[in-house]
Amino acid sequence: MSSETITPDMQTNSQKGKAMEASVEKVSVWYHMRRWVLSFLKYFSLVFITFCVLLPLASCVWTAAKTDAEYKTGNVMAMPHNWFNFQNYADAFKLSNMAVAFRNSFIVLVCVCFMTTIIGTQLAYVLSRFQFPGNAFIRGAFTIAALLPGIAMQVAVYKIMGSLGMINSLWGYIIMSMGTDVISIYIFIQYFENLPISLDEAAMIDGASYFTIYGRILLPLLKPAIVTALILKGVGIYNEYYAANLYLQDKQKLGTVAISLYAFTGPQGPKYNLICAGVIVTLLPALILFLIFQKQIYNGVAAGAVKE
Amino acid sequence: MTTTQPNVAVAERSAADIPFNKHRRDWKKTGIIVLFCFLPVALLVVFTYLPFFQMCGYSFYKMKYIGTPKYIGVKNYVDIFTRPDLLATLKLSLYYMVGALIQVALALYLATVLAFKVKGGAFFKGALFFPYLINGIAIGFIFKFFYTRGYVLDSVLQWCGFDLNNLPYWLRDQKVNNWSLVASSVWRYLGQTMILFIGAIMSIDGSLYEAAEIDGANKWQQFKHIILPGIQTILVLNIILSITGSLSAFEAPYVITSGANGTGTFFVQMDKIAHSDQKVGLASAMAVVLLIIIMICALLQKIVMGWLFRDADDGTAKARKHAQKVEKQRKKALRQANKVKAGNAPLFRNGANKEAEA
């Protein structure tokens, strides 16, 4: 409005220019302020949430380094005198029989991962490559099985395991763990369907048997999907505690890493410096693998969850 | 008819195209199908479907793991809906539902921030995700320690100016203990949900943000109009899954409080009834009831998703259905044609057509 009434002698062109520059500067100062505040809020929230998430873990780390005297007399939040006090780790390792637990977990992990990969890829190969009566039925059966929560079924599975004589046997536990893997089969089927069928046809013309096509041609191409499925299965098996606790009752001999920590629940009251050391020992393998395979783990988790 | 076949056959090559007929190779095919399907299907039947049907059967009996079962009809089901202690456990899932929604919201915020360039982004991502990789028993101990009177949480709150005498017992006070457990559950699964959302956000075309920025859209507008529509499928899916998940909430109360002081959810109670009290019949009935609820939720999920994304339907679904129908008719016609010249059964459709041409 006012610009229309300005007379030429009141405001020269240069004055106009200056005013405009000032207003631009004002806007840009405002803009930078806003940006700075937003960025501050962003980092503040990130640091705050990460602090909250790490606090329970970090408190375990410093508690694990405390001697009994320090733990009993000092405040929980007080830092230990010697950060490299590994006595608790050694004690926890011995008390919960962790050497045996690690061996058992290793056996279970290797067997289950190997077998689920083999039978999972075989089933996926057949389901994705052949049209046969029952194909859709099997697919549907696996889809519905994914909906049934495992813990609800344990009431009846326990009786079946009992009648098969598989309670209190590492092999029984391994076989049971193999049977409930639906997500990796999904991942394999999806991946197979992306591999061109002309590969099979070319090999077939060259006289390859179905078994050769599966084992020599398709399986090597399936590597990324296998890595994804192995990570998901590996994390699941290493951390599985409910069925392990139920079926591996002789914990001294058969316990896995996840349930070895039960050794710390006793009548004498919790000695948390020891327990924290035990907790850290059990999650150390997971931490190391996570640091190495970070990217694959993220991919695996994303792929697995979408199918659920 | 025969003249148009080659084109169609070359264009369409899928697993369905390998015909199932009486060739020598088909015996091998049948063999490999049986061989490769046998073990997984047997495992599925023994450890999933057999227990499922047995469980449905058990739910009508009064029985223990050992001893003869006694048929009592639907009394177990009546018990579930009339025993106040069992009904109360279902109400606890409301806590977990609220927690799951907070988790989704928080994960969405973190994912929107961390999907773009942030200083130390890899560290934040890793630190937030790592709890997902810790086993349940360890989590139980970590949080028992964390929530103990005068320990970690109380100390931090005291630093912030709270008086210890005014703070509740986090795991014993029935006013707060369920929230404490929900917090531990959010702690564990936040990172996983976040990684999921980051994956979805990363798959959005990056040039959209540039275009929006040129048009003067601020960050909030970009979030509202680009990110949110871009990830809505996975977002809705997660919200629905969190509802189903909260009905079957189990882990946090099982490992931290063992269901004491009014924290026992439906599954924790079921576990106790099945394995400590050995009331297999009642526990089975509880499992069946929850399975039915979950099935209904899964069905509702399908309906809700279909309804929510009805606008997104640009006719592809309809077109696909039509194409399938046409394809079926074409196959039928082809099979008829093959039957006529029985004898030289084809291995591939391609091969057959070449013969036909010749």
TrEMBL record, chain A:
The keyword Ribosomal protein does not apply. It comes from the Bacteria. It is a multi-pass membrane protein. GO terms for cellular component: plasma membrane. Its main location: membrane. Keywords: Cell membrane, Membrane, Transmembrane, Transmembrane helix, Transport. The keyword Cell membrane applies. Residues 102-293 form the ABC transmembrane type-1 domain. It is found in: Cell membrane. GO terms for biological process: transmembrane transport. PROSITE patterns: ABC_TM1. Gene3D superfamilies: MetI-like. The chain crosses the membrane at residues 43-65, 106-125, 137-158, 170-189, 272-293. InterPro entries: MetI-like, MetI-like_sf. Belongs to the binding-protein-dependent transport system permease family. This is Sugar ABC transporter permease. It comes from Bifidobacterium italicum.
UniProtKB/TrEMBL annotation, chain B:
One of its GO terms (cellular component) is plasma membrane. Residues 89-301 form the ABC transmembrane type-1 domain. The chain crosses the membrane at residues 32-53, 94-116, 128-147, 186-205, 226-250, 280-300. PROSITE patterns: ABC_TM1. GO terms for biological process: transmembrane transport. It holds the Pfam family BPD_transp_1. It is found in: Cell membrane. It is a multi-pass membrane protein. Its main location: membrane. Keywords: Cell membrane, Membrane, Transmembrane, Transmembrane helix, Transport. PANTHER family: ABC TRANSPORTER PERMEASE PROTEIN (PTHR30193), INNER MEMBRANE ABC TRANSPORTER PERMEASE PROTEIN YCJO (PTHR30193:SF37). Belongs to the binding-protein-dependent transport system permease family. This is Sugar ABC transporter permease. It comes from Bifidobacterium italicum.
